[in-house]
Amino acid sequence: MKDFSWPVSAFNEKEFRKFSLDIDANRKKMFGRKIYIFGAGIRGCIFLKFCEMKDIKIAGFIDNDPNKADGCIGDYRIQKFEEVHEQKIPYYVIVSTENSQGIIRQLTKEGLEQGEDFLSVTTDLYDNFADDFFRKDDYPYLFLGDCIFSQVAVGDSSYGSLEDMVYHEFGKERCNILGMHGMPIRTFYHLVRLLLKRGRIPQKVVLVVNTVMFAGKKNQLPRAQHTPLLRNIQEKLNFEDQEFADYVSLTKERMERFRTDAFVSTSNTIKSRNSGRIVKLRMKMNYMYSLDENEEGVVYLRRLAELCEEYRVGFFPFLPPVNYEYGESLFGEEFHVCYRANVQKLKAILERDCGVTLWDAGYLLSQEYFAASDTINEITNYLGRQKELTFLKTMCAE
Q1: How far apart are the C-alpha atoms of 286 and 324, rounded to whole Å?
Q2: Computed over its alpha carbons, how large is the radius of gyration of the chain?
Q3: Structure confidence by residue, pLDDT tens digits, 84-109
Q4: What CATH number does the domain located at 2-120 have?
Q5: CATH topology for 125-268+276-396?
Q6: Of 70, 92, 88, which Cα lies nearest the Cα of 79?
Q7: Would you tell me how many other CB atoms lie within 10 Å of the CB of residue 189?
Q8: Cβ(196)–Cβ(306) under 8 Å?
Q9: How far is CA 154 from CA 143, 163, 207, in A?
């Protein structure tokens, strides 16, 4: 049995608040039914954590990806929708996928009623992002990145996100933050290009560039596309842009592909399925590959740097802290050798081709400042975010 578990040590605090409100409003409708999470990906694992935090016991997962059929997430089996539906047992579905319209149509077609038999937790993340993109005021600082701005640690001492801290420190009127989980550099390139085309020209652009962004196919995963958001921006533009229209079409193609978005383990026992071996594989994938100068993310990093130079905008690529002590505990000195080699390649590309300095905070934080001591991503706890903020202030002062 394949285990598609993803370790959840952090979450989007705004998303959890919305989840809590929706669950509390529909809890009575779940009574006496088996509860399934539709979507056995990373977000499904996050929703499982949300259910645990809200004392909701689920029966399992549903997923349309044939690669995940008869797999599991920890103790919970992944089933096809037809298998659950044909059991003729009362059940309730919590839809976890971000692009949920297809699933909503699927459930409705089978006679399920939204709000009565299933719940699709929708947030304002896309609307808020679009609103920020179309801000009409002039701001000197533009920050771009993934979930580093919005995520907080499970059990954190404060749920103030890095986004909240940056806005408080720099002033809401003096900066804009366009952050979205999994968003690739190619998307940020287009967003900056469109902003400049609209006459929104900041003094400095800060782009979070973790090495995961350049790890092969990660930018092609369905969860990285955010097509509805990009289409919304496309429709609201007061001009046509064929390059962006072509890219939105490409993201739609990528979003509709079935592609496993996590490493899996194939073992007979729950204990070994959930062992550190899975995390070790993910850590190796994220940080210990050999960076390719022709990888899509690297290509568009160059283009973004060139775009900023053309408009005389300061470009500040920011490499966030990595949990290097955990990497060392798994791989020893090999982790440092591989990680540093990729960072040096990235620095060389930026300096040689673009005349740009990579602001390297990779070794800024020790293990206790991350969302969890064994986390494989860059999400930090509140104390870690304070140190990151200090680093960003120093960087932007240059």
Answers
A1: 12
A2: 21
A3: 999 889 999 999 887 788 899 999 99
A4: 3.40.50.720
A5: Rossmann fold (3.40.50)
A6: 70
A7: 23
A8: no
A9: 24, 17, 25
